């Protein structure tokens, strides 16, 4: 495998981007991603925080301690993974992490891998989705993505600008991707409006170092409160209110998530009150 280290965008010439490598290296090791060329993007993707702008190469550890960063994002970063992973893992890589569904990770020929069946729907699915789970029932694992959804963040890539919500898509028969990013498109920067208040609450199996069973971000703006959820759908999931939980379609093993989501939304709304 070839590793390139370009020092400017102009030098980019194909290959799979790698930043901290905390997600990509295990995927390569397990044969879930194949690459002849890796491109270390740390010299070309901005890193750092300046008022409402965050370089996509900023690590979760840097975000969780910076007072310029809204609470919801700081709390989401602080509750993700372990300190070691947070000091290597970048926000750009976090938004693009693959599903933790063990059937997918064990390379079952499931819907997301291009097959016809969702093995989790029929099998073990305690950690899986309660929304949009008819084809693929995976639950999006990113805490920061839920926070950025609530914060109404925008993303700048080397080709376009888009809302965080537009980065994600549900898989279809024609296209099983969960993001709208084009091959080799690079996330460069995030832009965040300033909320009046925001928070992120997370239910997990352990108090530390666990993916979200349910994560709820709330951000209050003059126009109202925005909610973003992790762990409830194959992509980060926006909700208008707790009432919208009535539209969920939990699987037998994920009904408990509804109760958790209801409680966390109530607490998050109280917190940004
Ligand atoms: C054990 C473990 C526990 C974890 N727990 C949590 C958790 O609780 N909550 C949570 O939210 N996350 C969790 N994570 C995920 C972790 O936060 C991510 O692995 C990390 O943030 C990824 O960043 P990275 O820079 O290492 O990405 P990389 O591994 O370098 O890349 C990840 C993906 O993003 C692509 N990529 C990277 N940067 C860019 C860019 N700028 N533009 C375009 N593509 C890019 C890569 O090609 C690759 O597909 C966990 C990970 C592990 C391994
Ligand atoms: S939940 Fe998605 S990733 Fe998991 S088995 Fe079903 S189709 Fe595959």
Bound molecules: flavin-adenine dinucleotide, iron/sulfur cluster
Query: Quick one: how many beta strands?
Result: 12
Rg calculated over all Cα atoms = 18 Å
Low-pLDDT parts are: none
Supply the helix-strand structural class.
alpha+beta
Biggest sheet strand order reads 4-5-8-6-7
- What share of residues are in beta strands? 15-25%
Nearest-integer average pLDDT: 97
Helix content: 10-25%
Biggest sheet: strands, sense, closure? 5 strands, antiparallel
Total number of helices:
9
Structure description:
With 273 residues, the protein is of the alpha+beta class. The protein contains 9 helices and 12 strands. It has helices spanning 24-29, 60-65, 71-78, 83-88, 91-95, 102-105, 119-122, 143-150, 255-272, and strands at residues 2-4, 16-18, 37-40, 49-50, 53-55, 154-157, 161-163, 187-191, 197-203, 214-221, 224-230, 237-239. A 5-stranded antiparallel beta sheet has the order 4-5-8-6-7, with no helix packed on it. It has a 4-stranded antiparallel beta sheet with strand order 9-10-11-12. Strands 1-3-2 form a 3-stranded parallel beta sheet, with no helix packed on it. Strand 10 and strand 11 (224-230) form a beta hairpin. The longest helix has 18 residues, at 255-272. The structure holds flavin-adenine dinucleotide (FAD) and iron/sulfur cluster. Flavin-adenine dinucleotide is lined by residues 16-24, 41, 45, 56, 60, 80-81, 85, 88-90, 92-94, 96-97, 141-144, 186-187, 211.
């Amino acid at each position: 495998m070839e590793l390139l280290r370009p020092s400017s965008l102009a030098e980019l010439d194909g290959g799979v981007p790698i930043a901290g490598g905390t997600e990509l290296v295990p995927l390569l090791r397990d044969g879930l991603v194949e690459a002849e060329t890796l491109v270390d993007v740390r010299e070309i993707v901005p890193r750092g925080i300046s008022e409402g702008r965050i370089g996509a190469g900023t690590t979760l550890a840097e975000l969780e301690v910076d007072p310029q960063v809204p609470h919801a994002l700081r709390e989401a970063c602080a509750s993700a993974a372990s300190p070691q992973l947070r000091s290597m893992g970048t926000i750009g890589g976090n938004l693009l992490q693959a599903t933790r569904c063990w059937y997918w990770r064990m390379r079952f020929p499931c819907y997301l891998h291009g097959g016809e069946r969702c093995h989790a729907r029929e099998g073990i699915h305690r950690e899986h989705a309660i929304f949009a789970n008819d084809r693929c029932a995976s639950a999006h694992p990113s805490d920061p993505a839920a926070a950025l959804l609530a914060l109404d963040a925008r993303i700048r890539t080397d080709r376009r600008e888009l809302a965080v919500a537009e980065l994600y898509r549900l898989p279809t028969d024609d296209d099983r991707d969960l993001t709208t990013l084009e091959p080799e498109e690079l996330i460069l920067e995030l832009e965040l409006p300033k909320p009046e208040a925001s928070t992120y609450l997370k239910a997990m199996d352990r108090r530390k170092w666990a993916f979200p069973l349910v994560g709820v971000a709330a951000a209050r703006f003059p126009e109202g409160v925005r909610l973003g959820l992790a762990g409830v759908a194959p992509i980060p999931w926006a909700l208008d209110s707790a009432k919208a939980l009535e539209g969920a379609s939990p699987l037998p093993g994920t009904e408990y998530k509804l109760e958790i989501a209801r409680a966390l939304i109530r607490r998050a709304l109280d917190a940004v009150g």
